[in-house]
Amino acid sequence: MISNIEKEFDAITDTWSPRVVADVNGQCVKLAKLKGEFVWHDHAEEDELFFVVKGALTIRYRDRDDAVLSAGDLHVVPRGVQHNPIAEDECWVMLFEPAETKHTGEVIVEGTRTAAQQRAHMQSESLPSKGA
Fold first, then answer.
1. Domains, the chain, ranges and CATH?
2. Phi/psi at 56 (nearest 5 deg)?
């Protein structure tokens, strides 16, 4: 499978809605467009890696200094640590996290996406076209 990152980002229409683009050794590679403030949450058993492709992102913490990221920066949020990502302007991020990681941890909000929702485009892309 070959993916073009820019084309994958172009296909993302909703902010805070991760899109799985690859699976590697039990890890998901996800892309997301972020804008505004998300929700305080944690992932009890999983670390989460943020890589900023475009824009800027602040990851706010309750118990430590904020992580302020620009394009090209990466940051790992340790498992079990409460965090809240904030992007003043649209920001493109690539996330690396175990496949079982819940989008918003145990916090359920309107924008929470299930693993199936994050992969829905993969099923439709694998269907044969009518001319095939």
1. 5-126 (2.60.120.10)
2. -140, 150
